[in-house]
Design brief:
The protein has 241 residues and is an alpha+beta fold. It folds into 3 domains: 55 residues, RNA-binding S4 domain (Structural Genomics Hypothetical 15.5 Kd Protein In mrcA-pckA Intergenic Region, Chain A, Roll), CATH 3.10.290; 79 residues, 2-Layer Sandwich (Alpha-Beta Plaits); 76 residues, 2-Layer Sandwich (Alpha-Beta Plaits). The protein contains 6 helices and 15 strands. Strands 7, 8, 9, 10, 11, 12, 13, 14 and 15 form a 9-stranded mixed beta sheet that branches. It has a 4-stranded antiparallel beta sheet with strand order 3-2-5-6. α1 packs across α2. The radius of gyration is 22 Å and the shape is elongated. The structure holds uracil. Uracil binds next to α5.
Length: 241
């Protein structure tokens, strides 16, 4: 069934600079048109998929969902509510806020980096579902130097201390002897930390730098957010590493 919305609600959901009361005022002044006819009332129904809504001559383009890249700092939790610590949602600036936003996937409180925030449950499911194997790439700093055997152990599937066998993953050493990148195709609780523990090492710093084939924007400061533009959304599901 086509989606129907109240005109004022629709406009204010798509134009962060216009509150519902501002939209009401613009309608009253005859500055809002629907299919080239001045809107008579702010509560008239519109079909966002097909109706042409304009405010002072500017088309209100319809985006059903929003996708936000957040560079999560340490000390912030990946939940929608928390009594004690700030949540990732508290970092979303006013102009990107919408009802129904949630983090698609979790990072530990002390992990930094790429968190996807969206109001699109279907897309989040696609990214998180283990059967889709969407790779997540992490930069890791270890307490001790990495060992050349790690590469093979990661690709064979590491066995955690509780006996769980991880899916094959990729380990890539970096030039510093205690720094590396790992790519996982699943997301178990504290997985990266537990994998290195199983190898007798310890993660001292962890940052997610890529989801699917989409890199965290390196110009984004810690705590910063940016909307993911359309052409990059598909990169989130890419299985290419
Ligand atoms: N693995 C971890 O151990 N922690 C994270 O936050 C993400 C992956």
């Amino acid at each position: 069934m086509p989606e129907v919305q109240r005109l004022d609600k629709f406009i204010s959901s798509q134009r962060s600079d216009l509150s519902r009361s501002m939209v009401k005022e613009l309608v009253r002044k005859g500055k809002v048109t629907v299919n080239n006819t001045a809107a008579k009332s702010p509560d008239m129904k519109v079909f966002p998929d097909t109706d042409i809504v304009e405010v002072e001559g500017a088309l209100v383009s319809y985006k059903k969902h929003i996708y936000i890249m957040l560079n999560k700092p340490q000390g912030v939790v990946c939940s929608t509510r928390d009594g004690l610590s700030p949540t990732v949602l508290s970092l979303i600036p006013e102009n990107l806020r919408r009802k129904g936003l949630f983090p698609a996937g979790r990072l530990d409180k002390d992990t930094e980096g790429f968190v996807l925030i969206t109001d699109d449950g279907a897309l989040a499911h696609k990214i998180l579902s283990p059967k889709n194997h969407v790779p997540k790439t992490y930069f890791v700093r270890l307490a001790k130097e990495w060992n050349t055997s790690y590469k093979e152990q990661f690709s064979n599937g590491i066995i955690l201390s509780d006996g769980t066998k991880c899916l094959p993953a990729q380990f890539s050493p970096l030039s510093a002897p205690n720094e590396c990148e790992v790519v996982l195709h699943e997301g178990m609780f504290h997985q990266v930390k537990r994998m290195f523990e199983a190898l007798g090492n310890k993660v001292v710093y962890l940052k997610r730098i890529k989801i699917g084939n989409l890199f965290l924007d390196e110009n984004l400061p810690l705590g910063g957010c940016v909307e993911i533009i359309d052409k990059n959304i598909n990169k989130l599901f890419s299985n290419l590493v």
